[in-house]
Amino acid sequence: MSSSPSFSTTPQSKEDADYNKICDEYNHLIETIPKANGWRGEPLCNYNGFWLNTMILKSNFFLQSYFKSQTTDIFLASVMKSGTTWLKALMFSTLNRHLYSFSDHYLLRHGPQSTFPLLDFESYPITDFTSFPTPRLFATHFPRTLLPSCMIPCKFVYLCREPKDVLISYWHFMNKLRSKDLPPVSLDDAVDLFCKGILDYGSFWEHVLSYWRASLEYPDKILFLKYEEVKKEPEVVVRKLATFMGKPFTAEEVEKKVVENIVDLCSFQTLSNMEVNKKGVENFGRVEAGVENRHFLRNGEIGDWKNYLSEEMKQRIDGITHEKLKGSGLIFDASDGLY
To answer: In sequence order, what are the beta bridge partners of 179?
Structure first.
């Protein structure tokens, strides 16, 4: 396993005692923290029960110390490959519907990932978001327990998805990002790692439960959505989003079918056929290597896992799902293969 990088205790711009303290804490942690091989060949670190790569772990340290939330902020949170790209498009288009016409929309020229920032790739000095119009939209894949305390009182939209579909989508995505010098991750290894919770941001089940339990305690602050319900009733969900974000649709907008137009614009078929999502590249934070937009729009269907997983794999994942969610009150549609 390759050694984990540390980072300099002297920022280029100025001496900063707080920054130096963060560096010392991070470097000490990296030396002592449990590690495992990640899906892209890089080490993952077990931080407070969740697996993070060193870049994301470093970013979490910076966010904890430097990110300043506003009470009106709205965050989209999810496990990776749960439909985040789609929901980003829906949230952005719903909240900013007064800024664009459907014939000359932002999404016709830019990938959905660019609509609002993913905080997980922030570095020092952290981006100045104070000029963003309110309410500000942000995205994160951090579990609830790893969020900066300043974010907890804010509104969150959480999106979860059937775990077997998440696994297959994550497996495809990571193999596309994996170095061509390395062999692809086999499906057998992918299932084993997923079941053990060894993936970016940790266990699927613990991640989902961290937000589910909070949504029960603070239902006015956390809108908990399932990918499957968005897929089946997108117009209903878009109306929920609009109300939750403080911008419900007017009777005139309903009559003009604005809801339907947003759903059509943000549909998988529409987005995946746009030229920008066929050839464009999205960069995150100060990450040097971007990700091609087409990798964010692979399939979008419910039940794609059936094309890949054996009955034994299915039973293993379903068994963990049943045990982890038992007694939580989180219930899924059995027709989607969920417990």
So the answer is: none
